[in-house]
Amino acid sequence: MDQSSKKNSGIVPVSLAVLVLSAIYMAGIFTFLRGCGPKDDGSFMTCHWAEMSLKGLSAVLTMQSVILLCSAVKGLASGYAALMMVPVSLLNAVLPGNLIPLCMMDAMRCRSIMTPAARIFGILIAALALLCTWKDRYKKA
Amino acid sequence: MNRKKNRFISWNRLPLRSLTAFPGRTWSLIALTAILSFLLFGGSTFLKSLETGFSTLEDRLGADVIVVPEDAEDKLQKVVLEGVPNYFYMDKKVLDEVEKFPEVEKASAQYFLCSAKAGCCSMPVQIIGYDPDTDFSVTPWIRESTKKELGLFDIVVGANINADAGGQIKFYGNTCQVIAKLSATGSQLDNAVYATNDTILALTRSSVEKGINYLAQNSPEDEISAVQIQVRDGQDPESVARKVVSAIKGTAAVQTSTMLSGLSDSLSGGRKTIHLILLMVWVLSAVILFIAETLLVRTRTAEFAYIRTIGASRRMLSGMILAEALLCGLAGSLIGCLTAAVILKSFRTAIEAAAGMPYLSPGLKYTVLAALLSAVITLLSGGAAAFLAAFHTSRADTGTLLRKEN
User: B304 and B183 in one domain?
Assistant: First the structure.
């Protein structure tokens, strides 16, 4: 095994962890991590659009993590693929409550469950993606 | 000579190099210790948060007895303990009757209003009107946040309302100015808004103009929701409550200590259960750690035998195994405590709602102490397990170990 292969052998487990986290987050945001439901008259509150945005971002993150894992398994240079996940996951973390407003009460689902989950998963995925980028540093494109 | 290329491993760096050379084995040990410290720190902090929330709520309630309409005892409990916004009314004359009792030192009326919309969401908000001239339960709490007197359409919000001093919230089309935000109690009182009776009157009139007429018949000019009573020193709140109920028809008197006693019983029961679970977790984890360390040591007998042949003493070998276990324990403790802290802090409101009890995070001092204690217990458990395994290995004859391996 040459030097670069030896040093990059750790990237596959990390990219697998990224995929698992992204998949759990995507499944969660559609189910147990979702935001507030519709109002009595059927209309939606502002936080609904934050939830829809997070659903979209989670799908993008999951697809990116699949590409990352495939390139890592194939032994391709996957540092850039991992790096591309960082701004998307950080956007995921800052979007609810900052870019799209939420309900005013902390007890509402959007603030008590959806937002903390988005922040935790966003930061974790970004950190692991950066780790993948760092581990891939010896690979020549 | 290139010092970097010819650098050899010193004895002090051997444990760390051994751990990094086998990441799968290392991460497994770290994961075990992380789970132990997560459960120890998380469990103890959760319990302390429940106790802190309970004692804060006890302080905040202020009154010894609360008089409400006859059929509103359960509704009052729901408002205070479960955060279900509600409203109930009785004749304002009840306050005058209560004040006549010689056992009553202070009495003050409160008015409960339930907003249909808070300008933010469909969840109704509990608005509590109080008389600033006679109030003794809400005012001291408000004074902690602001010295300013509340005027018309001035409100003070609970800790869970996302508005700060200087902000605005609309009720029935009226823009209310947020004067202050109260400190957290960990209870459902954090989801309420407080205003003077003048503001409540104005909001009631607005609700009539908007066609929400059910509030029109219940104006603070004629009716009240509750009377807060503080009994004189030496008087028994229970007997005062009985006298009030028998003297004033159509009322119920709730002792705050009784209202909280059910909560206190739940907390005691919960405390015992959590302590038992934590003890079982610690014992189980210690056993698993011992088994894991023993198995690990057994798979490395050849490695240890070679180390002994190049001159390491039994003591040095035991020290190396112990150092590896402590490093894994340290990393695991850090990860476990950090994960528990992040989850408990981030999902505080959801945990409070799920627990159905007052929940208030303990201060930084307790959190740091709990984290240190959890880390020490985790390190001791892992260290003891590694020590026992290392002791057994270091006693074995090197030649025997090598022959077994071959």
Answer: no
